[in-house]
Amino acid sequence: MIGRTVFCKHDPYDDAGKIWVFGNETREFLFIAYNPELSGKSRSEIARKRRQVQTQYKKAIQETKNLLQAKYGDPILPSEHYENLGMPPTHSETHTTHALEAYKAAIDALKTKPSEPTPLTALELEMERQLETKQKQPSPVIVRDDGYFCKLCNQLMAGEDISQDDAEWVRRFINLGRGRALVNFEGLNVEKLLGRLDQVQT
Q1: Three-class SS state of 15
Q2: Which of 124, 135, 142, 184 has the fewest CB neighbours in a 10 Å radius?
Q3: Which of 105, 123, 117, 180 is nearest to 146 (CA)?
Q4: pTM of the shown model
């Protein structure tokens, strides 16, 4: 498939970890591509969380501006002082106000001053070594397939806890025809299974 142009579609069940791949010209179905890191997650939910973070970021910036303005005043000269300025300043003249000086002091206070690095202690060196070792270890890849679904269902019915992501994926999979068929095949009670999911997600 390397170098071949294809046509992709999002998963119709809103699974962000799955795309459907077709031929670019014939639109013939080729295969389904998976992303284990996003498998089982809702694409619309990911977009909603991203919008929430952007909104919080903009709100934090506006709150910071309002705080600086309330504490140090507006750096622009008020209109009632315009008549006291006289002639416009030349390139060699400098004019300032208390508000501008306070605003400059606030900006300078926010700037981080460089400092000389201090050597790490023996404990910090050991923690850094352990962190590097942990990062080099490959993280396990979770493949959410039929077998994984049955395993999670049996864990739930046995009273065991599962992660919030797994619980959301199981709930979405149950609503599919294949999920219902697997539940019936395992001889599990759908209502009891949904009740256990409610307990996990609260």
Answers
A1: strand
A2: 135
A3: 180
A4: 0.31
